[in-house]
Write a structure and sequence with these properties.
Layout: E1 2-8, E2 13-20, E3 39-42, E4 49-52, E5 60-61
Antiparallel strand pairs: 1-2, 2-3, 3-4, 4-5
Length: 75
């Protein structure tokens, strides 16, 4: 499940796609977000931003090792 066409404050764009956190991502969220089940992250290359559904102001960034991989160069 995805949210499409949402604003990401890290990317500073309004056309970003968000997906639910997965696997190990849940273990590294900030303390204030522990126990939540509605955390979504931006899927753009290089982005680490996540937020609770419908509450962007309460968002944060995942640690560096969870940075989305860069897009593959076109051949």
């Amino acid at each position: 499940m995805f949210f499409e066409k949402k604003y990401c404050p890290t990317c500073k764009k309004y056309d970003r796609k968000f997906r639910k956190l997965e696997g190990r991502e849940w273990t590294v969220v900030e303390q204030r977000h522990r126990g939540r089940t509605d955390l979504w992250r931006c899927t753009s290359a290089g982005c680490r931003f996540y937020q609770p559904a419908h509450n962007q102001r309460d968002g944060a960034r995942l640690p560096e090792e969870f940075r989305n991989p860069a897009a593959e160069p076109a051949e």
